[in-house]
Each structure stands twice: as C-alpha cells, then as structure tokens.
Amino acid sequence: MSIASRRALLTLIAEAERNGDAAALPFYATPAAEVSAFAARYDLDLSFLNLIMTFATGDAGFWRQVVEALPPGADGRIAAARWIEWLWTDAETGLRNRVGHAALRASGDRVCDLQRRAAAGEDVARSDWRQVRARLVSRDGDDAVQAAAIEGIAAAAWDLGSAPGAAADMIYAWKAMLFAEVGRDLEWTAEKQSAANERFDRMAASARANADAAVQQARAEGTDVAPEGGPIETTPFYRDVYNKGVADFIAANPSDLDLYGQRTRATVDNMYQLGRDGLLRQVASLSTAPASMVSA
User: Fold this and answer.
1) Helix (H, G, I), strand (E, B) or coil at 193
2) 141 vs 26: CA distance, rounded Å
3) Which of 119, 145, 167, 287 lies 20 to 30 Å from 260 when distance is taken between CA atoms?
4) Distance between CA atoms of 295 and 96, rounded to whole angstroms?
5) Residue 151: in which H helix or E strand, if any?
6) pLDDT of the chain along its 296 residues, tens only?
C-alpha cells in the first residue's frame, strides 16, 4: 500500500467512525466486484482485504488498527500468508496441534511453505498446490476436531493471487474445530442437541409472548414503541423486552442444555479476538518497502 493510498483509506475510516457508518467499508455482504474495486482503489492485496473484512465485522476501529499498523509500502499478501502459518502453527490456536497423523501435519507444513514462496514472488506451479490438496484428505475414523483442522489447512492450499478468499475460508473450519472441541468436552450428543433445540423453541415462544405483552401495555399507555415505522420486531424496544424474556426464562428454568450454546458463543467471541490479534501481529511484522517503491 502506498503512502497516498494509506492516507486516503485512513480518511475514509475516520469518516466512518465519525458518522457511525461502517457500511462505507466493505464487509461480508459486499458484492465481490465492489470488494475488488475497493482493493484496487486503496492498493490493498485482495487476500489481505478479505481477512480484514472478516475480522472487522463492521468495526471501523479495527480497520483503523490494521491500516495504522501497516508499514508504508508493505505487501499485505505477505501478512495474509503469515496469518495462514500462524493459524496452523500457533501454540494456543494452532490447527496443527489437533492433527495426529504425521503425514497430514507434514502436508499442512507444506501449504505454509508454498504460501511463503508465493508471497515472496516465486512462481509456484499449480501442480504443487494440487498435489498438497490431494494429500489433505481426512481419514475414515478421524474425530470431528481433527477433520475440521485438516479442512482448515486444506482451505489455504491455493495461490492467494487466484483464490484471494482462501485465507479467510480457514476461519469457518477453525470455528467448526472449536465447536467440536466444545462438544467433546461436554460429551454433547445428537440427543442433547435435539433436547436443546426443543428448549430453545420454548424459550423463544416465551420471550415473544413477553415482548408482545410489553408492546400492548406500552401502546395502551400511549407510548409509541415504533416511531420510525417498520416491523415492530426490529425496534430497540421490542429487542430489549424480548431479550429480557429470554433472561427470565433461563433464570426460571435453569438447564445444562444451555451450556453448549453458552460455550460456543464465548468460543466465537474469543476466536475473533484471537484472529484479530494474530492478524495485527503479522501486519506489524512486515517490512517497509524501499522509499523508491513507495509513492507519496
């Protein structure tokens, strides 16, 4: 990213923060053509942009953190490749730690090697990518944790120039792996999940009844609970009383069936924070390009 592009993007981010309008920045629902145009406009590698978008989830502040940490002229493609290796090898989060087969771990290491070489500008043959993907196949009998870890590194076994979403695709398998670990720890079964689904339906019905009653009472007292029009279910008033209904149901009907949902929600929050921190570390590790390569 050039100095001029960095300055322009930071200006856009500042406007988004000031106006509370994160939609000015691309996010998961932005059409691919618009994402590509944004990458070209601000001189961002597309694979790197996909990672920023995924972890920002509409948070302009995270955008600012990343862009401010990006050294002038640094190559975001290298950060994306290093993030892939971080997710594979990190002592805490690493997918590699969940893979018991030595040959599969070696194939995952090979993916990281290919990503390093490609990010450095080496022309890696398509056959090299194809061969390593062919080796990354989950074995019969693999548990869900290992299978998801293998799927995660296999998702990264593509040249980021032709498959810029490959790094971000790892996140879905990462989440599946963490959910499988929660399920294993809680000895979660299909029967428990079915019972939890039934409990959720009862809880939602109770919360809706609570919200509907609150709306009727508010209207009877002359309170306009939907001043901007639109479906009542989308208003802050309805959301608040619905959430109170959920909390009341859980307090009145405690159950271990809520543990899986509680743990997985906490897991997702932690996963996104770890992923953000990991990306920021890779950005900070980049080198500034020579002055002759950085336009003012």
Assistant:
1) helix
2) 40
3) 167
4) 40
5) helix 144-155
6) 788 999 999 999 999 988 887 778 998 888 999 999 999 999 999 999 999 999 998 899 999 999 999 998 889 999 999 999 999 999 988 999 999 999 999 999 999 999 999 999 999 999 999 999 999 987 777 799 999 999 999 999 999 999 999 999 999 999 999 999 999 999 999 999 999 999 999 999 999 999 999 999 988 988 887 766 678 888 888 999 999 999 999 999 999 999 999 999 999 999 999 999 999 999 999 976 544 445 54
Report CA Rg, the chain. 23
- Burial class for 52, CB neighbours closer than 10 Å (0-12, 13-18, 19+): buried
188 neighbors 257 (Cβ within 8 angstroms): no
Q: pTM (2 decimals)?
A: 0.86
Distance of CA 259 to the CA centre of its chain: 23
